[in-house]
Amino acid sequence: MRGLTTPLLTILLPLGLSGISLPLIEALTTVPREPSAPPTRIVALTLGTAELIADLVPTNRIQAVSYLATKEGVSNVASLLAGVPSIRGVNTEELLKRHPDLILASRYTEPAAISQLRRCGLPVLRFTDHESFRQIERNVRQLGRTIEAQEQAKRIVDWMRDTLRAVREAVAGKDQSAERVLFFNGHFTAGQETLTDAQIDLAGGINLASLAGIEGYAPISDELVVALDPTVIVLTVSLRSKGDFADPRGAILAKSAWRNVTAIREGRVHLLPNEHLSTRSPYAVLAVVDLAKVLHPEVAESIDVAPHPSRPSSSTRGSR
After folding, report:
1. What is the pLDDT of residues 144-157, one digit of tens each?
2. Pfam families, from UniProt (predicted)?
């Protein structure tokens, strides 16, 4: 191949926030390709990368995606990817049979698996930074340039900004300090330098974990929860191994150690859409909308969110 090289970043959109964050490592990957041949046989190994690519290209340029990307209640693009083959994990033999010209992976994809794919001559692109909306915008633009979908990438970024602007205008002037928020997932919460922290702030609330000095995604004790005394507790559902969802609200409300917490006493324990709050794709702006409506219900009707930009229609350039 003649050598156009494209530096790429790695994004991960976890299904849920169930682990302590790792240090962000910015990995630049060089991928040779023909100057006039954008990728047309794309494989997305993770939910997050599937959400990125599904909004940028028609499905006839997508060879396969993570099975999570086709699951309603987990993925924001399940309907868009209906009919696209799904895969679990990284199976080099299976991927070779698909003859991909672009594989999208996350920073949590096993390094050994990525190395093996590259040794087999498969181009693997990784996205690493995703804990701010600016980073997500950068990822969208970078991928748009790589696959020659710059105009659609710009539309998505503009939609993100318009959505956040609508929330900001709706909650302007509200007493942010009155809404003390705790995000809770299992035994973990989200503190400083996380997208969740930014989402709570933009929605007009105070993230108590951040205020307490917690960094990244970390466990939080019952004692600290009681001491922080949140006025609002935000939860997401967890995906069970058998494929259904577990609603955590009953268990939280029944926690004897938390019985005097304001949010428990006042019944302000809210289950938000997992696909909005857990994603690290452009759809993460919808979690800001969800949070604003929970924290400031009186302004819910005034938040005017434009429809998400439609993806391109199918093209003859990339049939599977």
Report:
1. 999 999 999 999 99
2. Peripla_BP_2 (PF01497)
Asked, for residue 271, whether it belongs to a domain, the answer is yes
Residue 284, token pair as written in the block: 């993460």
Helix-strand-coil split of the chain, %, nearest 5 = 40, 15, 45
* Burial class of residue 187 (count of CB atoms within 10 Å of its CB; 0-12, 13-18, 19+): exposed
pTM, rounded to two decimals: 0.83
Tokens linked to 190 = 């989200």
In a domain, 1, yes or no: no
pLDDT, mean of residues 25-41: 57
Distance CA 27, CA 137 (A): 17
Whether 11 contacts 106, CB under 8 Å: yes
Question: pLDDT tens for residues 183-193?
Answer: 998 889 999 99
Q: For residue 233, what are the contacts with CB-CB under 8 A and spacing of at least 6? A: 181, 182, 184, 252, 261, 263, 264, 268, 269, 270
User: Residue 74 domain-assigned?
Assistant: no
Look up residue 300 and give its two tokens.
């819910």
| d(C-alpha 208, C-alpha 176), whole Å | 12
Whether residue 282 lies inside any domain: the answer is: yes
